Each structure stands twice: as structure tokens, then as C-alpha cells.
Amino acid sequence: MATNDLYLGAVDLRCEANNTEHHTIEIDTDRLLVRRGQEFRLHVEFKHRAFLEAEDQLAVLVDTGPAPSEADGTRIKVLNSRVKWDKWTFSLQPTPGHIQLAVHSPPTACTGCYKIYLILYPSGSESIQQITAGDFHLLFNPWCKEDAVYLPDEDLLQEYILNENGLLYHGSYANIYSLPWNFGQFEKDVIDICFQILDNSPSALKNPLADALRRSDPIYISRIVTAMVNANDDKGVLLGRWDGNYSNGIAPTRWIGSLPILRLWSSSGADNVRYGQCWVFAAVACTVLRCLGIPSRCVTNYSSAHDTDGNLKVDQYYSSDDYSRMPSKRKDMVWNYHSWLESWMTRPDLPPGYDGWQVLDPTPQERSDGIYSCGPCPVKAIKEGHVDVKYDAVFIFAEVNADVVYWLVNKDGSRKELGVKQHQVGKQIITKSAYTDEKEDLTHDYKYPEGSTKEREVYSKAGMKIRSTNAQQKDLKISIKYAQPILGSDFDVYFNVANHGFMDKDIHLTLSATTITYNGVILTEFNKRSTTFMLKAATVQKEVLRLKYKDYGEHLSEHNLIRLTAMLISKGTSDVSLKERDVFLNLPQLTVKVVGEPILYRELTVQIKFANPLPITLTRGIFSVEGTGLTDLQEIKSPTAAIHPGQDVVVNVSFTPSKTGLRKLMVDFDSNRLRDVKGSTNIIVRRA
């Protein structure tokens, strides 16, 4: 070939500039990471002479999937045009020595890993040149109006796509507390792990081509992610465990971020990580979906029903012998709280009106289409009782709306209905606000006001006849009061029994305190007493139950929950009253103090202080520290083997910040008898 013939030279993917425009610069500056439906630009150099747009021809190919071919749509010829928004197109802008090549993907393109090829047809030459210009990842684009995940609110995008830190919610309805979490979706290796998760799904392993072609659909992707975050029936990420025995793994309360979990799973060759519970499953799924470009947020539902048979009610049984709770025959439960996530997308597979937030639940509870997955289900369908809408609307509707039926079971197996509580489930549904670190109440998005006519109409529409309730007002009422207790303390619980009738009542009252897990499993009844008294008309009697740490401490689950129960029987009548209240014991907070000024790439030290609040000595103390852009997970043993009651322990942790801006450092403390003690601090990192 003559020396004045045209040759393709170097290609600059302009990673930093493109990634900045595509909101992926936090992930990487050395790899091209772009969002569909949006233009990205390459610089292409030529040798020997300039590219003549009127004479020379340039073709562009992009490949994706396991074995790209034009026949199946995974090898795509990019059109030299700006006209067709639903096609891959490119345009040229010649400049001396090189051209700027602007490539535009359609907003319906398959997400995934791509290779881009350039083919040159030089004018006056029969020789054709082809080079690999490079690789890039294509993600969903919530900034693009035509994308199915388009979210037209920049503040919400900052939170539900770009924020790497968040808050999850634990505790009880009466005492909600927040747990800082490091989502870390923009750490450099997370995007590779996300596609590794998709590649290990059963559908991808069974038919890689069909899977690659369906990766344009956020409904499909979100359903795959919810199935793959749990490891129950595939090569999923997390194995769930709720029995308190985590000796061959890591207790769910130890995790303070998604990164160590995802990295453990990836580095082990897709071997499951042990262990997770609902908030961990939800947070890891949130990390994956935000990384892929689907707006997502974690949600907590307080008093969440687990209805196993789809009848929209939960049966609770009590023995007539000692008035203690009996196991449900169908394993219906009311969890103290349950966490899932919502993702934003359109639903073209459903009738109009169901776009927007969709419930996704990666916690393995019940099978959906044969696998442990749940959703996406429109939040709007749940509010209106449209339980025939896919996916899993009946199960999700029950989680926030089921009625709870209480039964007294006699020795002969016969039972008496104690009552129906229509407002016991879905007490409050919350997420972190997109604007502050406060919680946002989503209850009104899921249901009409409790007790309203509309709420009962929706319940009826969902397939259950409204159960008739006793219209007569009961004369006897029970209330439970206490000052919010701190873990390690002794405290009193006051049970007030009021007789609103006009006749004296002969009362038998049974009071009990039981340790439970957050998903409602009963552990140990550690305090119980019964009393009989005559309650005069229009009077109130107060009974006190003293709860001591020496009695409850060793029986607590890692969730520090106690259930209080009062069973009241009016002798000589059929009147039975039941009152329950779940108490969350407050935990101490770690004190986290920054020592020095946070400068990019300069070592920084933080001081962590813990004071033992328990009246017992703690052993095996360990601090966990993690923060996106600050440090990967570090674990530091307590400087003292034994931490005595009231003793302070101080540890210093050093790390080198790798990203500027507002960062959050999360800290956790665990020991033999005290777990899940958290702390956090905001750190503003600046350049030197």
C-alpha cells in the first residue's frame, strides 16, 4: 500500500470525559462506562493523511453476549445517522489528524459488556482495515426520557442512583432506630461483580443468548437480582439464617455495608456468603440495582405479616392452660419489621397506571414461579388491592394489610376466637428521605388510612370478605406503658386494666415477658405471673412487672426484642382480652472522632470509643470499620481481652482516603454478649 494511503491509528475512548457526562465517573476513569440512550464520543486517529468524510468510509460494529452474531441481534451494525432514536447510530466530525466519533445507543439497548469495532474503507483502495476500538459497559439511564427507568427528578437521582451511603431501619414500631449502611455501588470492582451475578443466574447459565437479549428490560433484570441475592436455589450471593447460630459464618448484624459481601462472593467463585437477614438482602440488592442504573431504595415495614396460604390473615394461638403463645399450624407470622426495596420503572407488561415504584424482596420467604424471588410488583397495585397483578401481589398485600386473628385453644383442641385486629399489620412503612438523613413515611403509598371505609373496601376487593367484628364495646381495656429501656438495665412495665362498665368484674390476669427474634420467633419466656382481683366499675388497676437484665440478658436474640403479653379473663363470662407490645432495648452508640484534617491520599486517623453498658464482662470484642472512598473493611480486636462493666475502650484506626467530597465512615462493635453496636461520622475529604 502506498505511503499516502489512509490507516486507522489509535483510538481514545475518552473515559474520563464520557464517564463524567454519563454519571459514572465515580466508578472509574480508566474504563468506558456509559448509559443507554445517550451519546458518547471517541477520538480516532489516522495515519498518512486526513480522513475525507466525502470519500472515505467508516463503519462501526458493537458486539455483546456470549457469541455475537447479526442473526440473533448481538452483533449490531451502527448506522451513520442521527435520525433513528431507536437504533444504534454514529456521526463523524473530522478534524486535522483525527475524527471525533459520536456513538448513540438506543434507550432500549441491552445492558451489558460490549466491544466496539471500527472498519475503514479508504477511498481509492481495495484494502479494508478493522480494529478493536475497545470495550465498554452499557447501563440503564434514568436521566434519559425514553428509558424505562427514567426518573425526572434530579434530587431523587442523587439519592437513588448516586448516593453510596444510606440508612436502614430496625427496632420496633414504637422505637425505630436507623442503621448506617455503605452501599458502595461505585467502587471500581462492583460493576464487574454485578454482571458476574447476572451471568451466574440460572437463566443465563441455561441459555446465555436469550438472557443477553433480555437484559434491556429492567423488569427482567430486577427479578433476576432478587433471586440471585439469596442463595437458596442458585449460585446466589447470601445465605439466610435466623436461628442465632452463626459460628460457621458472619452474623447478619455484623455487616455495615454491601462491599465485603459482594467481594467475598465474587472471590470465592460464586460460593454463598454466610449469613444474611432481610435488611442485608435488601441492601445488597439495592447496591446491585443502583450500580446497573435502576433507581432503588430500601424500605422497612413495621409489623410485617408473613401469610403462607394467601388468605390475607394471620392466625395466632394461645393455650387455655397457661395462656402462652402456641406455634401457628401454618407458620403464619407477624415479623417485628421486614425490609425490602423499591425500584423505579415503567410496566409495559401491565395495564396503564402501574408505572413508578415497584416492590422487590430478595429475602427468601416463599417461591415465585418456582424460585425464591419476589416482585417487581407495583406499589400502586398494593394500595388499590389489585392482587391479580404480577408479580407476587397477594403475598406483598398481606405483608402490609393482613388481619390478625387471635384464638384460645382448649385441651380438647376446640378453639375460641379472642378477636380480630385489623390494624395490627403494616403499622408504618418507611425509607430514608432523599433530602435529609431523616426517615420518610411511605405508609400512605401502600394503604389507605387504617380504619377508613376505603381501606376496608380495598381489603374486600383483595379477595377477603370483611369479617364482622363485635360491635359491642368491651368493658375491659388493657394498656401497657414503660420508659424506653436501655440494654443492660432493669426496668418496670406497667399494665393498666380499666373497667369501663357499670358492674364490678372478677378478673384473672396473666402477664408474661418473652424474648423474640425480629421475625416473630418466640425464644424464652423469662418472666410470668398471674393474679386475681375484683375490679370495681369505672376504676383502673395498675399491675407492675419488673424485668431484670439477669433474667432476660442471656436469652435475647441479636435484635434485643422482648414481647410483653397480657391475657385478661372476666370470670363467669366469655370476655377475654389480649394485649401485646414489643419492646426494643436501646443500644449504646459508638463515639467516632476524626483526628487531623481529611486530605486526599494522605493517611487519616479516627478514634473510636466504646463504653460497656452491661453489668457483665464482655469478651471477644471486635470493631469493624468501612467507608466508601475512605477504607475497605477493617477489623480491629479490642485492646483488652475483657471489657468490664462501665469500662471504656478506645481504638485508633488509620486509612488513606481515595475520593474527595462528603464521605461517611461506618463502625460496628461486636462481642460475646453484646452485638450490633453502631457508630458513624461524616468526613469531608479535600484535595491537598
Structure description:
This protein is of the alpha+beta class and 688 residues long. It has 13 helices and 39 strands. A 9-stranded mixed beta sheet has the order 1-3-7-6-5-4-8-9-2, covered by helices on one side. Strand 15 and strand 16 form a beta hairpin.
- The end-to-end span amounts to 53 Å
Number of strands: 39
SS-based class = alpha+beta
The unreliable regions are: 465-472
Rg from Cα: 30 Å
Q: Major β-sheet, in short?
A: 9 strands, mixed
Mean pLDDT: 92
How does the overall form come out from the CA principal axes?
elongated
> Percent helix among the residues?
10-25%
Secondary structure tally, helices: 13
Beta fraction: 35-45%
Main sheet: strand order? 1-3-7-6-5-4-8-9-2
Short description:
The chain is an alpha+beta fold.
